[in-house]
Amino acid sequence: MPLLDWFVVIGYLAVVAAIGFIASRRGDQGNSFFLAGRSIPPWAASFSVVATVLSAATFVGMPQQAYRGDLTYMVFKFAGLPALIVVGIFFLPAFYRSTHASIYGIIRDRYGPGAGAAAGVSFLAGRLLASGARLFMAAIAVSWVLFGSAAPGPLALTITLVAIGTSLYAIAGGIRAIIWTDVMQAVVAAVVGVVALIVLWNLIDRPLDEVVATLQAGGEAGRDKLRMFDTSPDPSKTFGVWSGLFGLPIFLVAAYAVDQDHVQRLLVCKTPKDGLRAGVLSNLIGWPIAFIFLAIGLLLWVETQVHGTVRVGADGDDRAVMVQFMLTELPLGVRGLMVAGLLAAAMSSLDSALNALAATTMNDLVQPWRRSRGRPALSDRTSTLWSRASMIVWALLLSAVAIGLAAWQIRSGKTLLEFALGVMTYAYAGLLGVFLVAMFTRRGSGRSIITALVAGALVILLTDRNVQATLGIDAFVPSLALGWRLILGAGLSAAIAAIPGSPESPKQ
């Protein structure tokens, strides 16, 4: 990149570092390191949720989704509002009443340390996959910018650099630093999206009616690329209307109710009502941002039709259509702003994941293990030091997982967006079923909870089309979209979790 672009990028990173440093001076320790003393205003928490959800899946994945397809992804965003309301009414009050920084402490209190640890491990495994997927998607774009390639070597180096760089301010300032950097990163990503849209529209230089006509005539099998609602009964379509009405809301309830990474953004506010306000506001803000990045993908496709521009690889790889546009068409300074926006998308999801992974590690594994050995709980100061150390370990593990997921995504044939959403269902299925039983019934035992977590993950595994093909069972088990797979997995998990038995001694 030219020197001016580097100045813009370095300036952005300097601001992020400054915010992290300022936040670290508050000296948050213990649970406050993860919850900021529940002192964050709802509007700031909402921007943090937006930034966390944005991630590279939005910046890179959404343009690819629309470039290859249409606007049907918007049903996913529409499903978010009712899901957040359900979470705010039925789940957040219980989470706020809990004294734990991790939501899985509720499972431990009810069913014993073994069940609590199993729930925590389930989240840790799922978050490793999901955040690893987001990390490698960001690295695809950053690797192209830095090295002009997304080959395995440059991609692996980029993944490691982004993970370590993000961990620095996350470790220094805890959730408080993460929240306030997320506010800036959400704004930067949104501004970058608008700027890209304007530049791209000027590049196409065609009347609106011509652009609309081109989009309506194009798409897969000649279908309208402006289509927002796919009414096909095909259960394998992730963003179909029927999945949007039933499967995707369940998926989003799971995301905001049983995923520590997402829930934590809603728990930093003063009251459950404030947490609900933050969630609802984040969803409303997310609608136009999602549409902007989808529109970028549509206009990139129009440009290929109008000007004959080639933005995919020789093998048809369309994962970097947004990056190719950034590198070839943007003027000086604007390109640096776009790279800053890309880094914002990557860092804003990774920082929250690192904090959530550390919170779960300390509260659901380390502290209960010490108590089980008759040792005193770690002091707030020592716990915070251990939390920071665990974030370094998790950053390295995320790097390794992200490198491995790059090959998995290519083999899956899914868009980056579908892949990123799908991998987390491995944890969501079991956790959602378990939490439904734990919070709304008096049934279950430590043994049934652990079995339910395993069963939920197995359902997701055996309904994955690539796993089916590998095992030779694809002819017997239908291919299902992630929402339907989650319903099956969570349903089986809840049924198993509700089996009565002798629970472990709680509150150990």
Overview of the molecule:
- It is built from 20 helices and no strands.
- The chain is an all-alpha fold.
- It has one domain: Sodium/glucose cotransporter (Up-down Bundle).
- The chain is globular.
- The mean pLDDT is 83.
Give the SSE map.
Layout: H1 3-24, H2 32-35, H3 42-68, H4 74-90, H5 92-97, H6 105-111, H7 113-147, H8 152-204, H9 208-217, H10 241-257, H11 260-266, H12 272-307, H13 321-329, H14 334-372, H15 380-412, H16 416-423, H17 425-440, H18 446-462, H19 465-471, H20 482-497
Helix pairs in contact: 1-8, 1-14, 3-7, 3-8, 3-12, 3-14, 4-10, 4-12, 6-7, 7-8, 7-13, 7-14, 7-15, 7-16, 7-17, 7-18, 8-12, 8-14, 8-15, 10-17, 10-20, 11-14, 14-15, 17-18, 17-20, 18-20
Please provide a brief summary of the model.
76% of the residues lie in helices and 0% in strands. It has 508 residues and is mainly α.
Q: Keyphrases for this structure?
A:
single chain; Sodium/glucose cotransporter; mainly alpha; 508 residues
Largest sheet, if any?
Answer: none
Number of domains: 1
Average of per-residue pLDDT values: 83
Summarize the helix and strand pattern as letters.
Answer: HHHHHHHHHHHHHHHHHHHH
- The count of DSSP E runs of length 2 or more, i.e. the number of strands, is 0
- CATH superfamily assignment? Sodium/glucose cotransporter
Uncertain spans: none
By CATH, the topology is Sodium/glucose cotransporter
Percent of sequence in beta strands:
under 5%
Helix content: over 70%
- Rg (CA only): 22 Å
| Oligomeric state, counting identical vs distinct chains | single chain
> In the CATH classification, which architecture applies?
Up-down Bundle
Q: Given the C-alpha coordinates, what overall shape results?
A: globular
How many helical stretches? Answer: 20
Highest CATH level, the class? Mainly Alpha
From the helix content, strand content and strand pairing, which structural class follows?
Answer: mainly alpha
